[in-house]
Specification:
- By secondary structure, the protein is α/β, with parallel strands linked by helices.
- The protein has a single domain, classed as TIM Barrel.
- It is built from 4 helices and 5 strands.
- α3 links the parallel β2 and β3.
Length: 150
């Protein structure tokens, strides 16, 4: 089992301090990046994530809940231990998105909204390191778990 605390619930004014507090318990950090278009919420972007990178040692899973992951993925400073996860439902073509993220030298994850059939990602399973099936509608923390996603 891996422990990946989500920084979405952290105080963004004290993001680095709160991340450091849980880092000894974490295998990696889950960082939600939202553009206000793909989902209705807006969170942090590359400048904040890259700044945070310089203060932490554990790998990042940068979860892009954005319309155009190909455009934004290269702006993140990643290591081979990191992962960038994009949504199947984004506006970029999944095969190309996987290829472009892989070129950055990190792992690739693909995510699904709860309403998207799991079969949608079958063509990509051999190309990704992670499939993230959302158990809430993406965009906001604190939602009720949707057991049908399992």
């Amino acid at each position: 089992m891996k422990l990946s605390p989500s920084l979405l619930s952290a105080d963004f004014g004290n993001l680095r301090a709160e991340a450091r507090e849980v880092e000894p318990l974490a295998d990696y950090f889950h960082i939600d990046v939202m553009d206000g278009h793909f989902v209705d919420n807006l969170t942090i972007g590359p400048p904040v994530v890259n700044s945070l990178r310089r203060g932490l040692e554990k790998p990042f899973d940068i979860h892009l809940m954005i319309d155009y992951p190909i455009h934004y993925a290269p702006r993140f400073e990643v290591t081979p231990a990191d992962m960038i996860t994009f949504h199947f439902e984004s506006k970029d073509e999944p095969f190309r998105t996987i290829e472009e993220i892989r070129r950055l030298g990190c792992k690739v994850g693909i995510s699904l909204r709860p309403i998207t059939p799991i079969t949608a990602v079958f063509p990509y399973l051999d190309l990704v390191d992670l499939v993230l099936v959302m158990s809430v509608e993406p965009g906001f923390g604190g939602q009720k778990f949707m057991p049908e996603a399992v």
